[in-house]
Amino acid sequence: MEESFVFQWSVIRSLLSILQWWAFNVTVIIVNKWIFQKLDFKFPLSVSCVHFICSSIGAYVVIKLLKLKPLITVDPEDRWRRIFPMSFVFCINIVLGNVSLRYIPVSFMQTIKSFTPATTVVLQWLVWRKYFDWRIWASLIPIVGGILLTSVTELSFNMFGFCAALFGCLATSTKTILAESLLHGYKFDSINTVYYMAPFATMILALPAMLLEGNGILEWLNTHPYPWSALIIIFSSGVLAFCLNFSIFYVIHSTTAVTFNVAGNLKVAVAVLVSWLIFRNPISYLNSVGCTVTLVGCTFYGYVRHKLSQQPQVPGTPRTPRTPRTPRSKMELLPLVNDKLEDKV
């Protein structure tokens, strides 16, 4: 009886963790799109900077004041030698995600972000010459095919937004690959990752945001009919972005790798549906087919990674490297917002 109760509670806890992750994730995506489209606040660098500031404060409160998570101590030298380069790529990843959201619909942006497994595998193969089983390469075919079909049939296609989302995938892959080499020895969870990286990212982004968008923000403040209400929404998106990070930590520790992968892809489908209900961006039949093929491909990719990770290592065979699709340790470099591990809004 007691074992049955423990099992039921475990299932309920996993379900609740996934639902609250979905809720924060979809809310952050929709709020950010609302900021760019409805509030006419077309300043992605500043929105990203607000997210970094709120996340820095939130991580400090959780670790230092509330002590909900123990602080992972990092040598001062390693902060600059290891964490700063990661923060720079982290910053680029977040900014590109917000830039793409400004120019393309949520559905298209989320589908392109699903291309991250392919860019990760290709980068590791090209740059690090890492071996991958043929089944990994085969699992990428529906992802690539779905992305191509979605891009060709996208009714609201914008080349600048498309390129920003695509380079965002490359930045996410680079961040993940660098994590393996730069952060070995540090078992970072999502909150400690934000604690160390968000202040660096704020420092990197603050000056470019002021120089490139400062005058535009001042003009927006003077012309917007309700600037203070709009600013509350903008800063709320930063708070929600940090809450999303916190929610990811519980999802990782409450679910298995396969469940996490499937939930991540279903979350993209939920985000696409909710964004369409709110913004009513036109979606063609072939476009929806391409999006579905991509998500099915991502799920299949995660399943293949999981099955290969369960196989015993044969002596003399190259080990297939881990990818962010199947997290199996606490060393996760999680973005400030969206989606599966690579998502950022």
TrEMBL record:
RNA-binding in keyword set: no
GO BP annotation list:
transmembrane transport
Residues covered by the Sugar phosphate transporter domain: 15-301
The record, for InterPro entries, names:
EmrE-like, Sugar_P_trans_dom, TPT_transporter
Q: Where is this region: Disordered?
A: 310-331
Keywords on this record?
Membrane, Sugar transport, Transmembrane, Transmembrane helix, Transport
Mode of membrane association:
Multi-pass membrane protein
Keyword Transport among record annotations: yes
Cellular location(s): Membrane
Provide one Gene Ontology cellular component: Golgi apparatus
The terms under GO molecular function for this entry are:
antiporter activity; UDP-galactose transmembrane transporter activity; UDP-glucose transmembrane transporter activity
Q: Locate the transmembrane regions by residue number.
A: 6-31, 43-63, 83-104, 134-153, 159-182, 194-211, 231-251, 258-279, 285-304
Q: Which family does it belong to?
A: Belongs to the TPT transporter family. TPT (TC 2.A.7.9) subfamily.
List, alphabetically, the PANTHER family matched.
Answer: SOLUTE CARRIER FAMILY 35
Q: What is this protein called?
A: Sugar phosphate transporter domain-containing protein
